[in-house]
Write a structure and sequence with these properties.
This protein is of the alpha/beta class and about 230 residues long. It has an eleven-stranded mixed beta sheet with strand order 1-8-2-3-7-4-6-5-9-10-11, sandwiched between helices. It has seven helices and eleven strands. It starts with 13 loop residues before the first strand and ends with a strand. A hairpin with a 4-residue loop joins strand 2 and strand 3. The protein has one domain: DHBP synthase (Alpha-Beta Complex). The chain is globular and about 50 Å long. Helix 1 packs across helix 5.
């Protein structure tokens, strides 16, 4: 009789962060996954995201494949703090410093030239990178224990709505992630406003949670890309 081989499919591991679970266990597990070159699902201040070590080409390629995302479209990355961003990008303008100090942590993504080496999928044309400092306590606790930025992209296959709960995230990626950090339900909110600060005048690339008027109040002169 022919022997049948049954292949067991491993389901994604889920750890619960506050308000439901042990914060130290959840953060420790997430940091371990990132350090080992894995990909995790995690809550942000808006919806759930998926990410990993933003300096690893293998990790970036894997996230592109999971999402079915256009590889020519760079990911946003999360940094621990303004001080971290200063290390990643030198010679920042006064306007850039003003925007960082006024809106971070918060839903403002700044596109700037980086002196650090990032893989394809993170660095765009001319070495530009898109960086944000998130106000979400779980994201920040994870980043506090890492020495690398974290890829930040919404947790959904291309064309689907972003996951707002760990359950929805596990439904999208039942076996493909190394860990999901369950931080409770997230209410969908406008995405971060994206502003290119690599030139003389800040340029809004994407409208979002922070209105143009508020950015103009801080930066002064402001341009807006067509279709932003």
């Amino acid at each position: 009789m022919e022997e049948r081989v049954v292949r067991r499919v491993r389901s994604v591991r889920i750890v619960r962060a506050p308000p439901f679970g042990n914060p130290e266990e959840a953060i420790e597990a997430a940091v371990d996954v990132v350090r080992r070159g894995g990909v995790l699902g995690y809550p942000t201040e808006t919806v759930y995201g998926i990410g990993g070590d933003a300096t690893s080409q293998r990790v970036v390629n894997r996230i592109c494949e999971l999402k079915g995302r256009d590889e020519t479209k760079p990911f946003i990355i999360l940094a621990q703090s303004i001080e971290t961003v200063r290390v990643l990008s030198d010679n920042l303008s006064r306007k850039t410093h003003d925007l960082m100090h006024h809106f971070w942590p918060g839903p403002l993504t700044l596109v700037m030239r980086s002196t650090a080496q990032f893989p394809d999928g993170i660095a765009g044309s001319g070495g530009l990178v898109a960086i944000r400092v998130s106000p979400d306590r779980i994201c920040r606790r994870i980043l506090e224990q890492l020495d690398v930025p974290l890829v930040s992209t919404s947790a959904n296959p291309a064309g689907c709505e972003p996951a707002q709960t760990a359950k929805e995230l596990a439904h999208y990626f039942p076996t493909d992630l190394d860990l999901i950090v369950d931080g409770g339900d997230r209410k969908s909110a406008p995405p971060s406003t994206v502003v290119d600060v690599s030139g003389t005048v800040p340029l809004i690339l994407r409208r979002g949670a922070i209105p143009a008027a508020a950015i103009r109040d801080v930066a002064g002169e402001l341009d807006e890309a067509q279709g932003a």
